[in-house]
Amino acid sequence: MSELTKKLFTLAFIREGNRLLLGYKKRGFGQGRWNAFGGKVEAGETPEEAAVREVQEEAGVMVVGGVEKVGELLFTFEGDPTAMHVMVFSARGYTGTPTESEEMKPQWFSVDSLPYSLMWPDDELWYPIYLRGGKFRGRFHFQGHDKILSEKLEEVQTFD
Ligand SMILES: CNc1ncnc2c1ncn2[C@@H]1O[C@H](COP(=O)(O)OP(=O)(O)OP(=O)(O)O)[C@@H](O)[C@H]1O
């Protein structure tokens, strides 16, 4: 059995009622897709701290009141020994005006018309749980970046 190395990432949402802030990824992993804000958890940081930092760096807004964990996702890619372990958070509040960064171009979307065809294919499977206030745990195995070969998704009450 070959060992999987796990790398920790964050993904954080800014939501205001019926609208959700997403960013168009201009470079790097997931380039050309709309996504929430996030990246690698750096040494010495908690996932919550990393989530707040990435929202500030990529969307130009400050999280107020901290972030709440809403999901945990594991992504693996055929032929790649590194798994992405993604902690998904929702900001309790924010201050500032979304501003384009070198990495992301932020834009508000109505939760009823999210651009799923221009997002990662897993998103349309788990976003509905998040959008109705649920928490989830899932794993997705990809071939390339467009095809999900296998998936497991469950709604959970807590993460303990
Ligand atoms: C496979 N299906 C997927 N579905 C939804 N979201 C996905 C994803 N796969 C990765 N993601 C997210 O994409 C970001 C990449 O982060 P990424 O830009 O690589 O990190 P970071 O900003 O630290 O990198 P640089 O420092 O710019 O190299 C990060 O939020 C991560 O959660």
Automatic annotation (TrEMBL):
<protein>
    <recommendedName>
        <fullName>Oxidized purine nucleoside triphosphate hydrolase</fullName>
        <ecNumber>3.6.1.56</ecNumber>
    </recommendedName>
</protein>
<dbReference type="InterPro" id="IPR000086">
    <property type="entry name" value="NUDIX_hydrolase_dom"/>
</dbReference>
<keyword id="KW-0378">Hydrolase</keyword>
<keyword id="KW-0694">RNA-binding</keyword>
<dbReference type="GO" id="GO:0005634">
    <property type="term" value="C:nucleus"/>
</dbReference>
<dbReference type="InterPro" id="IPR015797">
    <property type="entry name" value="NUDIX_hydrolase-like_dom_sf"/>
</dbReference>
<dbReference type="GO" id="GO:0008413">
    <property type="term" value="F:8-oxo-7,8-dihydroguanosine triphosphate pyrophosphatase activity"/>
</dbReference>
<dbReference type="GO" id="GO:0046872">
    <property type="term" value="F:metal ion binding"/>
</dbReference>
<comment type="subunit">
    <text>Monomer.</text>
</comment>
<dbReference type="GO" id="GO:0008828">
    <property type="term" value="F:dATP diphosphatase activity"/>
</dbReference>
<feature type="domain" description="Nudix hydrolase">
    <location>
        <begin position="5"/>
        <end position="135"/>
    </location>
</feature>
<dbReference type="InterPro" id="IPR003563">
    <property type="entry name" value="8ODP"/>
</dbReference>
<dbReference type="InterPro" id="IPR020084">
    <property type="entry name" value="NUDIX_hydrolase_CS"/>
</dbReference>
<keyword id="KW-0460">Magnesium</keyword>
<comment type="function">
    <text>Oxidized purine nucleoside triphosphate hydrolase which is a prominent sanitizer of the oxidized nucleotide pool. Catalyzes the hydrolysis of 2-oxo-dATP (2-hydroxy-dATP) into 2-oxo-dAMP. Also has a significant hydrolase activity toward 2-oxo-ATP, 8-oxo-dGTP and 8-oxo-dATP. Through the hydrolysis of oxidized purine nucleoside triphosphates, prevents their incorporation into DNA and the subsequent transversions A:T to C:G and G:C to T:A. Also catalyzes the hydrolysis of methylated purine nucleoside triphosphate preventing their integration into DNA.</text>
</comment>
<dbReference type="GO" id="GO:0042262">
    <property type="term" value="P:DNA protection"/>
</dbReference>
<dbReference type="InterPro" id="IPR020476">
    <property type="entry name" value="Nudix_hydrolase"/>
</dbReference>
<keyword id="KW-0479">Metal-binding</keyword>
<dbReference type="Pfam" id="PF00293">
    <property type="entry name" value="NUDIX"/>
</dbReference>
<dbReference type="GO" id="GO:0003723">
    <property type="term" value="F:RNA binding"/>
</dbReference>
<comment type="similarity">
    <text>Belongs to the Nudix hydrolase family.</text>
</comment>
<keyword id="KW-0539">Nucleus</keyword>
<keyword id="KW-0963">Cytoplasm</keyword>
<dbReference type="GO" id="GO:0005737">
    <property type="term" value="C:cytoplasm"/>
</dbReference>
